[in-house]
Amino acid sequence: MVTLGFLIVLEVVARRCTGQPGPLTEQAREVILPPKPGPLYGGMALMMVVLTWRQRFIAAGAAIGIDLVFVLVRWAVGAKVPEGHYFGNGALWVMLGCAVIAVTRRTGRERALLLKGVGLGLLLVAGRKTGDTWLLITAKTRPMVLDPYLATADHALGNPSWLVGRLLRATGPVGTHLVHVVYAQLAVAAVVVALYQLRRVAAERRFPRHHLVRTFLVIGLLGPAVYMVFPVVGPVFAYGPGASGTGGVQWAVANLWPHTPPPVHVPHPVPYDAITPRNCMPSLHTAWATAIFIHTRKGPRLLRYAGTFWLIATLTATLGFGYHYGVDLVAGVVFSLTIETALRSFDRGWDRPGIRLVAYGTTVFAALLAAYRFLPHEMATHPWVFGPLLLLAMASVVYGYVRTTGRWEPAAAPARQPEPRPELVGQP
Q1: What is the pLDDT of residues 383-428, one digit of tens each?
Q2: Closest listed residue to residue 289, CA positions, set 260, 262, 323
Q3: Which pTM value belongs to this model?
Q4: Distance of CA 250 to CAs 6, 210, 253, 307, 320, Å?
Q5: 117/55 Cα distance (integer angstroms)
Q6: How far is CA 126 from CA 25, 47, 97, in A?
Q7: Which of 95, 113, 124, 103 is nearest to 202 (CA)?
Q8: Which residue intervals of 142-211 are DSSP H helices?
């Protein structure tokens, strides 16, 4: 009910602030109109963790069959379809159908389990729609951006976006394409990790107490609220040529990225267009990649390697494409670890170490935002003081998380040693 209430409020806010429909309307349209297939089929994959293998094959076949019917009908009537939006309706129809089956044909725990699976899948899709709506709201309601503050504060870290941007361009199209795929397919990596964590749901008939999808959704829910407080468009927009058809030199403070670091000066807010999202502070891609890294630590070796690779490649992409400043990434790590700690504490019952770490992470995050806003010039003029302080603040939260969660893990039982048995000594 809380989630539904939030979506209704966001729908009203979106219509009043932007004149555009919100997430509920956009989701309802995809029952008929051509959607983006990735989120819908990812949501259906998550829903199917509660189904048996036979039911999974039936659900997948039904989704593909429904999509084929939609494709044929659109082709027959000559309907125009956006590029890459050919499939997806079938997955949504299957999830809605499973919800109807749960209400009409299931009872007790089986009904609750199937509804949980459907809710998990629909939440993944709604989370994407909610994020898109939030980004549009930030662009329409925050005409002034604070990029000069972060660009100045970033001198304390050596302007990493400018450095990685030049290095990534030097790798040529191969390296650029690789990190772009990683950056764009972060949700796919999350679904893969979540499917591994939820692989036993169908057999055990229950969900694990904590899994990656919950952390992903909460990060996406809370992050845009910070966007509204600290609107930032990113180096490639504020100091470069822009990207993806938005922004551009006409709105940039100067066309400097990635070859010339911005000069140190007293920053001030600057105007920007009403199209480009103010979605930099904190870096949610960094927060999500950090969550993936955390949740792969208990997986098999291949999954652990994949989680590490995805984190490194995501950090490279966020900086190398000019989407974020270095200080965004520091805040994103602290943001992710604080949310992960809060969710784990909520699941296992709040205790003193959990409360203390959540309070500490929240304080560090607030202190970072305050420093970026009110001390950027001091940070730039004393980089050998503030740079290590930023990294130390982030490292302290990382250390606190590892230490606190390590205490929560059940201690491994020592292997039982066979008791010595007296040997019978034969008489001569």
Answers
A1: 999 999 999 999 999 999 999 998 887 654 454 555 555 555 554 4
A2: 323
A3: 0.89
A4: 37, 47, 9, 39, 22
A5: 13
A6: 11, 14, 17
A7: 113
A8: 147-153, 160-170, 172-184, 186-197, 201-204
